[in-house]
Amino acid sequence: QSALTQPASVSGSPGQSITISCTGTSSDVGGYNYVSWYQQHPGKAPKLMIYEVSNRPSGVSNRFSGSKSGNTASLTISGLQAEDEADYYCSSYTSSSTLAFGGGTKLTVL
Amino acid sequence: EVQLVESGGGLVKPGGSLRLSCAASGFTFSSYSMNWVRQAPGKGLEWVSSISSSSSYIYYADSVKGRFTISRDNAKNSLYLQMNSLRAEDTAVYYCARGPTKLNWFDPWGQGTLVTVSS
Question: Is the pLDDT of residue A2 over 70?
Answer without folding.
Answer: no
